[in-house]
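Query form — protein GAF domain-containing protein

QUESTION: What is the three-dimensional structure of this chain?
INPUT:
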Amino acid sequence: MSRVISVEKDLELLANLAARLLSTPVATITLYDSDGEDGQGTAGPVRHTTVACDEDWAARNPNIDIAQLGSPRTAMTQHLGLYASVPLRNGDGSTIGMVACAGDEARDLSDQELGTLKHITAIASAVIHA
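ANSWER: The structure tokens for GAF domain-containing protein are given below.
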């Protein structure tokens, strides 16, 4: 199995784990392309998004663009009850992506849930950089 396929499968498993542990119908792991213009690795266009999404939830919410959950700015325009995200960073601290979860229920993540999201983000970063 090639390394790229392994990383994609691992990220898919992590997105599913995030959705289950956080009791949310949607979890995404988004990787950005670096724009390369300033040499700082700033976020560019989306390169890849891994999605875990409950099919029934998606059918009830056809206007939600799940691929946009990797960008907090655009995610907030989608009228979600819950949206939380943690940036994926590389070794120098530049943002290279986002791990996010969303749902209908208007609530904040508990401290424990936020910690879980941060841990999943750290694992995703390790998978990407392995």
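ADDITIONAL NOTE: The chain has a mean pLDDT of 87.
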